[in-house]
Each structure stands twice: as structure tokens, then as C-alpha cells.
Amino acid sequence: MANIIISPSKYVQGKGELANIAEYAVKLGKKPFILISASGIKRVGDIIKDSFKDTDSELVFEEFHGECSKNEINRLLEAVKANGCDLVIGVGGGKIFDTAKAVAYYAETPVIICPTIAATDAPCSALTVVYTDDGVFEEYLWLPANPNVVLVDSDIVAKAPARLLVSGMGDALATYFEAKACQITDATSCAGGKITTAAITLAKACYDTLIEEGVKAKLAVEQNVCTPAVEKIIEANTLLSGIGFESGGLAGAHAIHNGLTCIKDCHHLYHGEKVAFGTLTQLVMENADEDLLDEVISFCMEVGLPTTFADLGIENPDKDALMEAAKAAAVEGETIHNEPLEVTPEKVYAAMVAADALGRYYKGL
Prior knowledge:
Elements: E1 10-14, H1 21-25, E2 32-36, H2 38-51, E3 60-63, H3 70-83, E4 87-92, H4 94-107, E5 111-115, E6 127-131, E7 137-142, E8 149-153, H5 154-158, H6 162-185, H7 197-221, H8 228-248, H9 252-260, H10 271-285, H11 290-303, H12 319-329, H13 345-363
Parallel strand pairs: 1-8, 2-3, 2-4, 4-5, 5-8
Antiparallel strand pairs: 6-7
């Protein structure tokens, strides 16, 4: 099998870049369908409209209903067809990106992704994570192509709540460790081939950037300012992690995230927050050395990512509920089976409990 790396056709990041969206959109379609939340329209709607004011494009704005589910995808697909739109633009956060990508795929149109937050590595990928209407993981939808353009306005991202940027760091934290596991087992990546030197190098650069710049970036966005550290973390969360996970592969961390969606106490968490705990659990399963565990746990604590069940909202851990999550994480076909070890629900459960114990130890609890 060939080594394969995939990526968006164009990645644009910089201060004030959303004002230039029309420059990229008019090359792809004349009637954009803009998927955005109600709050997103208030925040950036005028910026988008002003960008198109000197073009002959006809904009169709549609509010997102909150969940990347089959029902929502089908609703929006019908709206695209009914309005005769020839381009889909997703503006906002991870579930909007994933929904926009799926709608564009079924509508056979190009797609532009415009993150207003850097909370996940979803913008760059050819993947949609589909949930039920109630927010429980249902399936992965693998798409034939990455977005045509990913456009990130770093000024807008820096003004979003710091917790969202930190969540993106949690998602990105898994990238190198999952890619490394896939490299060891020679697993097939999400790109449909074996891992390239470029992909593992980007994944490692992603991890190194988090460790070096993460705390500085969090402190800056808490003050609503965009510094060089913030720019680097936005790129790590979005581009480095996006290419790194997709062309490197997924393993334990994201499967454990998927399992945690079965626990209602975790539903208030962002994707990357659950992935961070999944990363710690993966490292425990792999029996990572003490220095690495220390670095990862210390980083999570410094930026505010979960390291214990209590951090996840699970105040009174129930063995049956945790085992249900472990079984979901270890189900046949899940990415956890790319790990370089035999995986069983019992091993996942044990690693989750041990990860929680480590987190409590570091917190002095």
C-alpha cells in the first residue's frame, strides 16, 4: 500500500482575513450557501456581507441547528438544492465544519471552511463525524476530498473564549501519539494509505508547538489579544493537527472520546476536552514512560484540560457506566485497534481508571 498525505487545497491564516473571503469564494461559485449559527451572524455576518458587496454573488445564510446529525445534514442539503446554491461555506465551530463538508459532498459543490474558533482539527480534514440528534457518536463519514479553502481569521479566533482554544489543544494533543501508534503498527491512515515522513513530522511539530506555546497562547486569549504564540497555536490546532491526524491516523485517544459520549455527565464537554483525557488513557495503555506522562499531565493541568473523572464531570464514577464507555471505545472497527497491543474493554476500563488516579495524584487529591 502506498504512503499518502492529503490536505486542503489552500490554507489561509491571518489577522482580518475573513474580510477577504469573497476573493476565494467567487472562484468557486456564484451563489454561496453560508452555514452559520445565530451568534455567528451577529459576530461576523456583516464582515462576510461587506466582503461580497462588490461582487455579483447572491448570498444565502442558513442557521445551524446545533448537531451534526443525519437529520440536520439532510435538512440543509434540501435547502441548498431549493436555493440553487453552487458553493457551501461553513462559518463557526467544529460541528458546523463537519456538517458543511457533508452537505457540500452530497450536493456536489465546493466547500470553504471559516473557523471562528480553533477548538478542533476538523477544518482541514476530509472527514465528518456524525452524531445522533442527542449528541451521541454514531459514525464517521469519510469524504473523497478535503475542503477547497480553509480560511482562519486569527483576530476573530483570539477573541473567542479561551476554553475553546484550549479544547483545540486537547484535540491536537492526541495527534502525535495516535500517529506514532499507527506508524508502529503500520496501520492505514484516514487518508487511505500508510503514514508519510511529512505527516509524522507535522504531527510531532504539532505536539512540540503545544508544549512550547500553549500556556502563553491561553494567557493571551484570556486578554482577547492575538500574539505570535496564539498564531502558532491556531496553526497547530487547525493545520498541523488536521493533516497530522488525517494522514497519520487515529488510535486510542479518539476511540476513548467516542466511548465517553455514552456518559451523560460528559455531554457538556467540548470534543478536545474529552480527547485530552483519551490521550492520557492511551498513554497509560501503552505504559508510556514517567517523563512523558509527567510532561503531558503537567501541560493539561497548566492549560486546564481534564486529567480526572471529576474534571470530566463524572463526580461519582460508576463502574458499569465506565465499562459501557470502554466497550464502545473497543468495539470492532474502532481506531483503538490501531494501537500496538491487544485491546479489550477490560484493558480500556483499567487504563481509564488508572489515568484518573494519575490525574488525582498530580493534583494532590
